Amino acid sequence: MKRLALLILFILAATKAPGKDAPQTSPVADYNISWTTQSQESADSMPLAGGILGLNIWVENNDLYCLIGSPNCLNENGMQVKLGRLRLRFSPVVFASNFRQELRLEQSEIVISGQTPSGAPVSVRVWCDVDRPVIHAQTAAGEPVDVEIAYETWSGHTAKYVEGGLQWMYRLNPAKDRRKKDMANQGMAEFASAIPDPLRDLTLGGRIYGENLIPAGTAEGTYRKLKLKTSAVKTAKPVNKLDLCIALRMEQDKSIEDWETKLADSTREAAQAGNIAKARAQSLEWWKEFWNRSFIQINPGKTESDEPWVIGRNYQLFRYQLAANRNGRMMTLFNGGVFACENNPDSRMWDRCQNMAQNQRMVYWPLLRSGDFDLLKVALDFYCDRTEANRLHAKKFWGVDGVAYSEGFSVFGLDSIGVNEDGRCRAKHLNYHYTSGMEFALMMLEYDRYTGQTNTPYLAPAEGIISYYDQFYQKAWEKKRGKPLDENGHLVIYPSDACEPFHGCTNNSDVIAGLLALTEELLALPPDRLSPAKRAYYEGFLKRIPPIPIWEVKGHRVVAPALSWEWVFTNGNMDFPNMYVCFPFNRFFLGRKDDGIAIASNTWDYGAIRPGVQRQGKCWYQSAINLARMGRTQDARDYTTKKFIHPSARFPAFWRNPRFCQMPDTDHGGSAMLGLQEMLMQCDGRRILLAPAWPAEWDCHFKLVAPYQTTVECRIEKGQVTVLKVTPESRRKDIEIFPPKPTRPLQPENDTLKTTLPHTPRNEPVASMELPSIPVPGCLAVSSRNSRPTPSFPTVGN
Prior knowledge:
Beta-galactosidase, Chain A, domain 5; single chain; 2 domains; 18 helices; alpha+beta; 15-stranded antiparallel β-sheet; globular; Glycosyltransferase; 4-stranded antiparallel β-sheet
């Protein structure tokens, strides 16, 4: 009987459904990337993320290379550049046979292994601290080997031998004061105290430390036609073990001597054996928490031969790359991030635009749903710290107490492209384009709503933007017509830009939708966060926002770019601003009683003036996001598949988009992330919509973050959605499940993904009535996303 009872207990334990006491498998356990052949060049590298470091690591001609990137590493023009390159060379050669290089996501480490000619195993493990900029490279060899460690620079860093190793350094030249020049050219010199200066006294460099290292000489050469200087150290004798500690410092210290002292201290501390073990434990704990914040696993248990499984893997690989900027002073750039590794590593496409907001926004929107608030905070603080400078700019040039963030946003918070005498951007198609800044302000309000934090400075940007639009356009219309508002008591937003294509606009839909979103979010704040006077003001402003313009095209009601416009900036990279009512400004959602989703879908089908361009799927394009929002499952599946399974370098999430953004195309990855998230979960006020655009053929296990400090974990199997866990449990009542829909695999001839229209010369004028067959103008009074009244369609004149 006792044996029978034990057998029953064993069977029950074996068949028990997984619960909170069951061992948890890492969400990325099956997604490691491994190679068994060496690379040809740096573009064939693997990324290694940690803290504020992003390393490109590869083995070429039996040498191990490490290209060092950081968001805090800037040159005199405010461009993000590299700290240089490290090279490890072994004697005898150890990577010529039995070679393997593996990125282990769970631990955030890269392990490179091989063997000596006699067959002794050799491995190098590379990882980074998450709390300080330190790289560890730990070699273990089955027989003694010589190791040479070289620092290589093409950027003017100077290197010297120091006790225990090698130090390199570059201090920005104070004579090349880009900030002073830009302030003078943009009429902002009088406000210097309000303009951040991240370049003053900035010194960049690092220090290599290892036991018994001795000088190994210097050399000069070329690297991609750049002059290359090399300084090296080596082990005094062959070793079985070598722990290299590379401490970096990118700080604004008062003097070089001060910088050197602090770097020496941090290197000494980081290299102590006890501190290495402590740093490793802390790093592993952080990564464990990171991977369990959120995840998306598609078709778990499958392999690389399964396309949906690859989509889930590449989602995790790209999210990993974003974790290379936990708390940097600069944003993760849209054009290569910290992992840019092609051609000259210190230059990238569109680098003179610096933080081009239309592109930058797509890097950061998905971090709300993934719960990566520390990564998101880097961008939000960047904008907040530059809000006062933009307020002073608006007051000086336009006489309003408000904020309008330029589209080309420099590290100082000025216009990276330059401005005209009226304070508007020098680029004609960006004169009145401030929509992307509205998105960052909305992200700030969403950050507060998601996290529940109430002590942030994140209200000021939204309040400043509303003040700008209210004050400037009342003044402009009064000057033109003798009264501040139209006959219906609404603002007349003219002149304005509908993103980059439409100019000389009156009441463009992207700005109207953005103002509605910001105002409603402010009014939804708890009573203690908004004074009665401010609440009354925003309630009044909400009534002054004009209705979203609606046109009829081929018998279908669609959102128009604007009531009217004067010219169109046409090129191969055109926004679709009339779709901004869907994303990012959240006017329409599935399951509401109004017909907003039908209007959004009509806009997608009939509202583009150049469909093949405006409905692209690559780079920053948000097509997959909009299609998911509309519940168009087949189209969302097709676009998302193309987004994630896209031409790349050797590493599958280093996506390439020639003539768009530098590889790895970071805004491509951010847009792809958010599109996949939206297929699984959308959030409308307190509503949580599950599987609104999910294909029934894809199984999935996911955990995502919703507003009001909520996490939702679900499993989708054979088209059935099971909610596993909701935190807090009280939010379960807000969940609405949309049954996944059957779809077909992506067809190669799918025309919706092609750019078939011929290229139109830039700046060619396009008539205001470019939309075909528009006989009936109208406007849409859009409902709040926290309620569901039916919209009205009053007929108005032009």
